[in-house]
Amino acid sequence: MPSDLTTNTAVRGPSGPRTGWTPPQWVATTALLMPTYAWLTLAVLLPLLTMFCFSFLSATPMGKAPIVFTLKQYRAFIDQPYLLNIGWTSLVIGFWTTLLCAVFGFLAAVALSRATFGRMRETLLILILLPFWTNGLVRVFSWTMVLRENGFLDNLLHLVAPDAGSISFLYTRYAVVLGLVHGYLPYMILTCYIALITIDDAIIEAAVSLGARWWTVLFKILVPMAAPGLISGCVLIFVPVIGSFMEPRILGGKVGVTMGTVIEDQFTQAFNWPLGAALSFTLLAVVLAIFATFSGVLKRGAAA
Amino acid sequence: MTYLGRAYLFAMLFFLYTPIVVMMAMGFNESSLYEMPFSFSTKWYEALYQNTPLLTSGMNSIIIAIITAVIATSLGTMAAVALERRTFRGKSLLQLLLLPPIAIPWLITGTAMLVFFYWSGIGRGMHALLIGHVALAIPYVVLVVGTGFKTIRADLEEAAMSLGSTPVHAFFAVTLPLLYPSIIGAALFAFAVSLDQFVISYFLATPGYTTLPVQIYSAIRKGFTPEINAISTLLLLGSMGAILIFARFAKPGDVSDKR
After folding, report:
1. Which of A122, A135, A188, A192 to probe by mutation at the B interface, max B CB count within 10 Å?
2. Which residue of B has its CA nearest to A105?
3. Which residues pair with A57 in a beta bridge?
4. Do A42 and A169 have their domain in common?
5. From A127's CA, which of A62, A165, A187, A249 has a CA 20 to 30 Å away?
6. Euclidean distance between CA atoms B207 and A93, whole angstroms
7. Set of chain A residues whose Cβ sits within 8 Å of the Cβ of B85
8. Does residue B8 lie within any of the structural domains?
9. In angstroms, rounded to a whole number, what is the distance separating the alpha carbons of residues B131 and B128?
10. Number of domains within chain B
11. Are A96 and A233 in a shared domain?
């Protein structure tokens, strides 16, 4: 519909009742767009470009050491094999977080679209999405209250079994995954729910009347038809999770070393900016590869 | 089946809210080591009142969030007008350029800003935080206001113009009032995005000028006290409030009768 206005204005042309000089269309369009894109260029595009250049430097250009262009930062994965381990850890954490979100989130979306109606559904949806828009840092911090020794979880256990020891698992990778699932689950529920509500009830009724059991309905109808939502959710979760650093730091303690924390260290502790930049761009390449692979699905998801 | 589904949803809500409720409750527990049994006390909120660094950074956060909301909403609305109502070449490229702030992990965007702002002499501190926060909020504003535009018919504006209105007057007299709910929603959204932003702020803040999440993070890493619970509770309630008002204004999925 956006073309209507321009074409009509052009057709009406000078015979229109407007008075005074009107600038050409492109001037107005540029004036409207300029501030936003100038701002994004300054704040996002130029920084990414600068960091890309930095990733080829031999050292941070702060001291007096001579700076030369080099590819050695990108060889870090070969020169420092422990980085491979860390990269693998990040991928494993990302995989489990995404998988758990997909299973629990999809089922929640199914329950939301099949077992609730009207007011109740609206309220539940808002309640599910509300934590997502609150501070992620605070939510991660709140898990330390539950998981720490003699925390909420231990107290709950001691209500049932007063003599049991501690089942605290703060500062483990399980805690990191749990915190990440808690953070990103609402995302998955939302994308799956949007995909599920477009499915026609009649299809499911037809399947049930022909004798389909619930698992047939789930795996032969709901999952395939909601696949775009499921895949969008997975991508939108996996990408930020492999770049996360404060969740592993707070919930993982000493074992919480991921690509995210290594990159953060290069900028805040080690001051090896070129290495940090190279690692960032390696991560970015992974992210872009994921987006490129699923771009078709994501576009359809955005259109829906 | 219906009851099973609802039970499952309530289990999900229990999972989502338990840590938050526990964290909030611990802000009212007297023990500084979060020890049980629970004994009610407001002493951590009183201590908060004396904690100047936390309060100052909280004030900084609110000021930055307000300025971010104003700037991002103005710029983003202008861009949304152009992207929704005008045809020009390269539009899809411009729409694509809105994605990086949303799609690239903040760790990468944040470190890139740190490098560029250092190298170009912009430096860190309040102005750097503002540049970063506005850039993160603009894409959301364009999306929210753009969605609002789709519910308004373009021919209302044309009708006004054929009755003698200039394009500018038609926009301000006809389209803008119809857009107000979306614009207010977008502003609240931008406010919440800025208030909750931690990663970017973490790299752009200076020891002398921090925001609340950055201050909370350094406090957590130093070993935390229930004062953190108290300020976190206030922060959560603040952003939950903003989002609930947003939901009231923007009514997600509501494409009703603005015609």
Report:
1. A135
2. B12
3. A69
4. no
5. A249
6. 32
7. 2, 5
8. no
9. 5
10. 1
11. yes
Interface test with B, best of A40, A46, A50, A180 (most B CBs within 10 A): A40
Q: Do A256 and A298 have their domain in common?
A: yes
Question: Which token pair is B177?
Answer: 């009032």
Question: Is pLDDT of B253 > 90?
Answer: no
Q: Summarize chain B as % helix, strand, coil (round to 5).
A: 75, 0, 20
Integer Cα distance of B201 and B149 in angstroms: 32
The overall pTM is greater than 0.90: no
User: Under DSSP, is residue A21 helix (H, G, I), strand (E, B) or coil?
Assistant: coil
pLDDT in tens, A143-152: 988 888 888 8
Interface membership of B81 toward A (CB under 8 Å):
yes
Domain that holds residue A142: 77-303
Tokens of A46: 């130029």
Kindly tell me if the per-residue pLDDT of A9 is higher than 50.
Answer: no
What number is the ipTM of this complex? Answer: 0.86
Q: What is the pLDDT of residues B66-100, one digit of tens each?
A: 999 999 999 999 999 899 888 888 888 898 889 88
On whether residue B29 sits in a domain, the answer given is no
User: Residue B201: which domain range?
Assistant: 42-250
Q: Rounded mean pLDDT of chain A?
A: 85
pLDDT beyond 60 at B29:
yes
Alpha helix locations (H) across A13-64? 25-40, 46-54
pLDDT tens string B206-239: 988 999 999 999 888 887 788 888 988 998 888 7
